Amino acid sequence: MAEAIVSGVVARLGDLLLRKATSLHGVSNQVEQLQDALKQIQSLLKDADARQNESQSVRQWVADMRDVAYDAEDIIERYALKVGSRKGGGIQDVLKRFACILGEAKTSFQTSSEIGEITRRIFTLKSSLQDYGIKLDSMDGGGPSSLSEKIKEQRQTYAHVEHDHVVVGLEDNLKEVVACLTEEVKYKYRVVSICGMGGLGKTTLARKVYHHKEVKSHFKCRAWVCISQQCQRRDVWEGVMISLTISPSKEQRDEIRSMTDAELTEKLCEVQRQNKCLVVLDDIWKVEQWNSLRAAFQMNDTNSRILLTSRNVDVALQVDPRRGHLHELKLLNDESSWELLQNLAISWRSEDNSNIKEEMRFLGKDMVSYCKGLPLAVIVLGGLLATKQTLEEWEQVHRNVKSCLHQQKDLGISMVLALSYDDLPSHLKLCFLYLGHFPEDFEIRTKELIQMWMAEGLILQTGSNKETLEDVGEQYFKELVQRCMVQVGKKSSVAGIKTCRLHDLMRDFCVDKAKSENFLHIINVNHESNEEIEASIGEVRRAAISGRSSDLGRLGFILPSTSQKYFHLRSLLTFFRPLESWKEKSMLRNFKYLRVLNFVTTAEYNRARAMVSHFNNDNDRKRDFPPAIKSLIHLRFLSLRSTSVRIIASLRNLKCLQTLDLRTTNWQFNFPNDMFRNMEHLRHLYLPQFSKIRGKLQLPNASKLQTLVNIPVFICAVEDPTVGFDEFGKNLMPSNFTFNCLHVLKISHPFIRRDKRVDITPMVTSCPHIYQLRLLGRIKKLPEHDKISPHLAKLSLLHTDLEEDPMLILEKFPNIKILYLGNKSYIGKKMMCSVRGFPQLQSLILAHLPNLEEWEVEEGSMPNLYHLKIVFCEDLRMVPDGLQFVGNLQKLEIVHMYSSFVARLDEGGQDFYKIRHVPSLEVEHTMPEDDWP
Q1: Which residues form the Disease resistance R13L4/SHOC-2-like LRR domain (predicted)?
Q2: Domain boundaries in the chain?
Q3: Exposure of 493 in the CB half-sphere (CA atoms within 13 A)
Q4: What is the Cα–Cα distance from 747 to 708, expressed in whole angstroms?
Q5: 802 three-state secondary structure
Q6: Residue 155: phi, psi to the nearest 5?
Q7: Is 473 helix (H, G, I), strand (E, B) or coil?
Q8: 3-class SS at 694?
Q9: pTM (2 decimals)?
Q10: Other beta carbons within 10 Å of 699
Q11: Class of the 151-328 domain?
Q12: What are phi and psi of 651, to 5 degrees?
């Protein structure tokens, strides 16, 4: 991982040098020399990283190199804080402190000396490489270390070896895979791929398939070869050829080994064409491995099949995109996990005492829940409990179940998960470890995660002008998903993957690895002493803090009281409501080099906050953010989402911000109109839904903005600017201005005078590339389809009070996939969807349209509609007759509608014929007519 850290520092220094940043005034030559020295050592680190497990001395060398890179970064950023901000006209107290030219010269001299010392340390470390056996040419050879060879031997699989442990939960999987391989009329797959995270049982399933009676009778010959991480192409080809040769003699084996590569691949292809062969490629990791092997496995003119197992979904998708089948293994449910454990840990069955047996059953069920459905974890736990005969021994394992699972040597969870981690490219290792910030089972917002990666400098620019950092970050994230290291949470047809999470055991590995690499420390205020908390934050680059609210006040007293300035800390995530205790003690003043500050709220806190939000008092309305934040000039990411802050004038000096999220739970939010004027790097701005701003809102360099959420409606042209809106201004941007990078735009009403209709066409027209648009508030009319971005995929309308049928315009939008009409967006009585309208629409939600009585859908309209939801449209008499022609409709939801409306949809009802083809009908909260509010 040190390689990735050094690479990141080199890239950031290069960026500063390229831009001739004023923050390097006086030391730019020394910084250039430092960058060159780091580049020289960078080429050695990959080999050194791979050898860390061989000896303590190599681990120490890598740790020293990592610390050198960190120290170099700290020195440069300290200098930027002191001198760079003076050149740019930044923070007032910094200006006063370094106004004297002599003082600036002294700072430059001191920094030059520090950089020189860092450079000397780098060359000293480089000269000591030979003591550890790390050489420059080792990278060219790429030879595996003795430890990786040992792991390879442990991971080697063979067709004839069937483990004794019972297989549970794979019955349906086995049936499906066997059918895909043998039923040639129904399925014509050339390749079947079994994919999933480490420990799910991919090899176990493949072995069951290989020995299945239907498979053995269907294929004339079969071959099994384990690829693993070190793929030797020639060994694989020879192994397959020998296995496909029935009872090969010594002469035949020798002949195979004497063939050239061309002869061998031609012979393999011929055998697979002439016979029905099954070739199992177990544990294939990379697309490059398949590309090196594929010459021997032609896809056409053959009845032979390939079965492969992989942790990388991308491998399965690349092998045969047209005729391949991807079978993704899932985690076991609670019932199957307990059944598997029972079959393995049989000692409790022989217990005669029913009370003791029941106690052991209780402990077993509790322990197996920790495995979270990962079969390997259940097997490791079962093997451990099989050696424990007494209740006391089971209780001991129960107390230490987490460490017991990870420390088993032969089948240790950590070793299996470490293989996936070690196979990651260096830049993805850092991104993966960053996920350790979040608690167990936490739904991580994908966009927010990528924005934090950006702020930390973990995303490297590709050099393409067309690819943004966000695009590259999304590629990073997708690769982690494809490698089965991250689990997908909520999905969106527009934004892709909305949320993700880590499996608990993967998270345990992630946190342990991050801590050992000095990358991240998790601090639970409930469990750590004051000294431990202070030491943790003082040493690491990143910290995540959680705990009960009653214990969090300690932080305000612990951290500011020390002389430690926490130069190391770059990211701070908190999982509680800390602002009350932090305002007084202002611990933020010690974190001047933070890049990420995220006040994350858990689902439990959000629910509690929602219950009490209407009890805001005077003190709550006056709550300001700690003024000390104005000194955090390196901050790139700041989220106050769902906090109780309302006044944020102290944020205006944060010129480096890329992401600012102010979506609080409070009703009124106050900030000055020039709040964002100096934030020249701002890319994502999330405002509260209702804001109070005095004067014209001044946006920063708008050419970089990609996201504007809850932007006040008064930036658009107001119908009557002389009535009550003078203080807000009537039009912010010149008519010819274009937001070329803007993708997400959500427009909201100002805090007052919500009765005026606004023309939003000029604003929407100035955003030619948006794919998400939300309009909240009364508007004059919808923009015509040729006036809006052709990329628009998601549109939400709320309280727009449209009097004309919006469908007449919306159905002409060529690429809209999700449409939400809610909360009096349309106040008319009739709605019409014409033939060939909405060609790409997948999801339609009609909610709280109180006047809607009749909805007509012509045949041929909405051909791709998958999901329809109708909520609280009290005057709507029936679903449209045209729904019977929407053949793709899979899910219909009816919520808070009259019982008479619902009765028409029941089997035998008047409208059942319209929706009988829909597989899923969900009805919630039906109300009788006389009970309707």
Answers
A1: 568-898
A2: 2-143, 151-328, 334-414, 424-504, 795-933
A3: 18
A4: 8
A5: strand
A6: -85, -10
A7: helix
A8: strand
A9: 0.86
A10: 19
A11: alpha beta
A12: -85, -10
